[in-house]
Please model this.
Amino acid sequence: MKIAIGNDHAALDLKWEIADYIKELGHEAVNFGTDTPESCDYPVFGEKVARAVAAGEADCGILICGTGVGISLAANKVNGIRCAVCSEPVTARLVKQHNNANIIAFGARIVGSETAKEIVKAYLDAEFLGGRHAERVAMIMELEKKD
Ligand code: RB5
Model:
């Protein structure tokens, strides 16, 4: 799979570690930055990854900031995106199985690198279950058309 990855300054080291891990798992990591430790604006990188995923240029995305929250909020403003914050692997599996999340986010100030890797593996190994979950996901996507 081709996986878009993005982060802010709070998550630079973890981003590189996770990008290497994605490659170890046999996937391709496409890096959208930031790549420097200077303070930056997480919405910029949330949007870059979200647009790549929404356009089908990547199969899914991984976003990392301090908490995972700000960058996920930005990503979720892009049509077609379902970005879920995960702080442990059970949630990471379920957001794929039930919500068909196309991006996950987590916080470099919240989870350690081993837990982050478990989150990534659980998400990438999981498959969307469809059925009643597909109907609910369709309802979520309909909300984009209401405003
Ligand atoms: C940056 O200091 C911090 O606000 C950011 O990484 C993130 O936690 C926002 O949600």
In short: The chain has a mean pLDDT of 98.
